Amino acid sequence: MYSIDPIGFIESPYKEKFAVPRQPSLVPSATSRVRLTGTANCIESVRGIEQFDHIWLLFLFDQNLNAGWKPTVRPPRLGGNQRIGVFASRATFRPNGIGMSAVEVKGVTQKGDQVYLDLGGVDLVDGTPIVDIKPYIPYTDSLPHSSGGYAESPPETLGVTFHCGAREILKSHPNRTQVYKVITEVLAQDPRPAYRKNSQDDKLYSVRLFDLDVKFKANNAFVTVVDVCKLTNDK
């Protein structure tokens, strides 16, 4: 039996699985950080990491570890209807629940005895356990002529609009510029389930980002932010 202990945990704007970007770097305005823990929480462990623009994060899909897995999955990029092998996908339900993301290095911060690794373009739920960090090496990790299979090109994005009331609420947020950008970039990815797309959809969706509950509606061209409210401590 093998066991892996986390070396840290992610702190990100994504407070739930819904609407987390399906790939890294799709929401560049979202900044996050790894809070190192245990013996990994020392400044020596990240010495020299700022030489690299990007790193690989290896992490656990901790919210799915007890849910089991199946040999085939239905990727959103295929409309949520066509099945392919789990190892031909980046599905979160996997035999060992391990994921990896290439993310931007923003810097290293130390507050007292606590060391943080500041990052950009993260696609992880707040609190995700990190099990390893490795530098991204462009000359060997970048393979621009590779085939991307069914994900050969990036998905189309939607326009995002805000009702006047929602926009006014955001104006009072202390981090309003970044929050506005992140909400816009997240919703432009159309986080709805694949089966909801290309059909009439009158559902009011809700997603938790930062300290906010963002309510929106969507069609195949636009996302409209209907309301924004502050999350309470019991949510």
TrEMBL record:
Residues annotated as domain TsaA-like: 4-145
Pfam families (alphabetical): TrmO_C (PF18389), TrmO_N (PF01980)
Print the keywords alphabetically.
Answer: S-adenosyl-L-methionine
Keyword Signal applies: no
Coiled-coil stretches are none
For the keyword S-adenosyl-L-methionine, the answer is yes
GO MF term set:
tRNA (L-threonylcarbamoyladenosine(37)-C2) methyltransferase activity
Q: What family does this chain come from, according to its entry?
A: Belongs to the tRNA methyltransferase O family.
What is the name attached to this protein's record?
A: tRNA (N6-threonylcarbamoyladenosine(37)-N6)-methyltransferase TrmO
Q: Which organism encodes this protein?
A: Vibrio paucivorans
